[in-house]
UniProtKB/TrEMBL annotation:
Keywords: Aminopeptidase, Hydrolase, Protease. SUPFAM superfamilies: Zn-dependent exopeptidases (SSF53187). This is Cytosol aminopeptidase domain-containing protein. The keyword Protein biosynthesis does not apply. Residues 336-343 form the Cytosol aminopeptidase domain. GO terms for biological process: proteolysis. One of its GO terms (molecular function) is manganese ion binding.
Length: 496
């Protein structure tokens, strides 16, 4: 779907404040118009909090209201997210003030190369309206009517175009992520995705016999939900046509657990609330596909899988102690039904591995993206994704490169390492089982609780046979976005 249809209001560049046609000016830095210098200094003379809190006042010289959302005093440890946050707060205050046509002054920065782009993205993020609210109350589908931005750069048009492109992907990711367990149940995500990606080759796997035979670990998670037609699982693959110009293949598998009850190991004590967000890995993959579909990079081939399933509890739910043979022929003993994310992704990841081996794809790199563990939130802290490379990807320096790029764009990653301990943890304990899916305590109480699932995904898919010394080494990276995807009541962040 075109970018313009996924942006919640009209967005344009402005050159002159007085002729912008806007009803409020949003300032987020101390690089202010000359007309405001005297008034700003006057406020500072008697208000010591002026440069630390959001304020709204009338400028007589500009004859318009002004929202000032100051940046903090920047230290060596701040990153470009301070620009995103300030821009979002300025739009939030303007909307609360009843304004409908803000003009955002986008500052330049010597410290952060992409401050202008990130500022615009921060403002756009504040304009998102959840899909169900848009559908149920159409009159509230826009928070403002239009947004103008003034970017003091010869590349202003390019910056705005890039911001709108990225936001269109984040819009798709938020829509899928924010939907409640019914609005974004697997069949309805299928409807949404196929509408968005009309021109992409999409293969939807919904037939139960096919799922049971070819994706047995996914089928186990899907068993209870499959009893209810509107909750039945889907695996959605996108297979764009290969081109002779392709130099690299990205193979993305996203966890799309539309609701996670924990299954038979049910989430008790009130911690089930918010588990509609357990689909944000698949949402991130869908958002990435939107950007690729619009940008059409000439040298990158992207294959994606959305693993959409509800981890329901009922008479046919899978239970701990079951032994299930994965697509790769690995005998998996279930240790905890609340570790369903690794189960629902493993067989799709195995299929990606098979394609990488058999189709002679150029420079394949496999990824899993998932809100996988509470341990990730504990280890990294709120707002940070975790990246874990296998041995092959690690030797290319991939995780550190991703971390460096994320730092530039306000999408921060922490890097974790896989160790032999993580593989040993999953080793089968008795004759007849190859690996154990999980222990029976929460990841946040398990040492190396976010690394162990990555090792399991390597073991359950046969990727451990494609290490550095194999005839066909394969790069694989696991992204745990449990800490960065956004928890209720906040809206999804659309990270990474």
């Amino acid at each position: 779907m075109g970018v313009d249809k996924l942006i919640p209001c009209s967005v344009k560049l402005s050159q002159v404040i007085q002729k912008s046609g806007c009803d409020v000016l949003c300032v987020i830095d101390r690089q202010i118009p000359k007309e405001l210098v005297e008034q700003f200094n006057d406020f500072r003379s008697y208000d010591k909090a002026f440069d630390t809190t959001v304020s709204c006042f009338k400028s007589s010289k500009l004859n318009m209201p002004v929202v000032y959302s100051p940046l903090p005093e920047l230290t060596d440890y701040h990153d470009v997210r301070c620009y995103q946050n300030a821009a979002a707060k300025s739009l939030e205050r303007a909307i609360k003030g009843g304004f409908k046509a803000p003009l955002l002054l986008v500052p330049e920065s010597d410290k952060f190369a992409y401050a202008s782009l990130c500022t615009v993205l921060g403002a756009l993020s504040e304009l998102y309206v959840p899909i169900q609210y848009r559908e149920d109350v159409p009159d509230k589908s826009q928070r403002i009517s239009n947004l103008s931005v003034m970017i003091p750069s010869p590349k202003a048009e390019e910056i705005l175009k890039e911001a709108l492109l990225l936001e269109s992907g984040r819009f798709v990711a938020r829509d899928i992520g924010v939907g409640d367990p019914e609005r974004m149940a697997p069949p309805r995500i299928e409807e949404y995705v196929t509408k968005i990606f009309k021109n992409l080759k999409v293969n939807v796997i919904s037939d139960l016999d096919t799922i049971t035979k070819e994706y047995p670990l996914f089928a186990a998670v899907n068993r209870a939900a499959n009893q209810i037609e509107r909750h039945r699982g889907r695996i959605i693959f996108s297979f764009p046509t290969r081109r002779s110009s392709d130099l690299k293949t990205l193979m993305l598998v996203g966890k799309g657990v539309t609701y996670d009850t924990g299954g038979a190991d049910i989430k008790a004590g009130g911690i089930m609330a918010g588990m509609c967000r357990d689909k944000c890995g698949a949402a991130a993959v869908a958002g990435f596909l939107q950007i690729v579909n619009e940008k059409k990079p000439a040298d990158i081939h992207v294959i994606a899988a959305l693993c959409l399933v509800r981890n329901s509890v009922g008479e046919d739910c899978y239970v701990s102690d079951e032994i299930i043979t994965s697509r790769a022929g690995v005998r998996v003993r279930v240790g905890n039904t609340d570790a369903e994310g690794r189960m629902c992704m493993a067989d799709a990841l195995c299929r990606m591995k098979e394609l990488a081996v058999s189709e002679n794809l150029p420079d394949p790199h496999l990824f899993t993206i998932a809100t996988l563990t509470g341990h990730a939130a504990l280890a990294a802290g709120s707002g940070y994704s975790i990246v874990i490379d296998n041995s092959v990807a690690h030797c290319t320096g991939h995780a550190r490169k991703l971390q460096e790029i994320g730092q530039l764009f306000g999408d921060p990653f922490e890097v974790s390492m896989l160790r032999q301990d993580d593989f040993d943890f999953n080793a089968g304990k008795v004759i007849g089982e190859d690996v154990v899916q999980c222990n029976n305590v929460g990841s946040s109480r398990t040492p190396r609780g976010h690394q162990v699932p990555a090792a399991f995904l390597i073991q359950a898919t046969g990727l451990n046979k494609h290490g550095l010394d194999s005839p066909k080494p394969l790069k694989y990276t696991h992204l745990d976005i449990a800490a960065s995807a956004g928890e209720l009541p906040a809206l999804p962040t659309a990270a990474p």
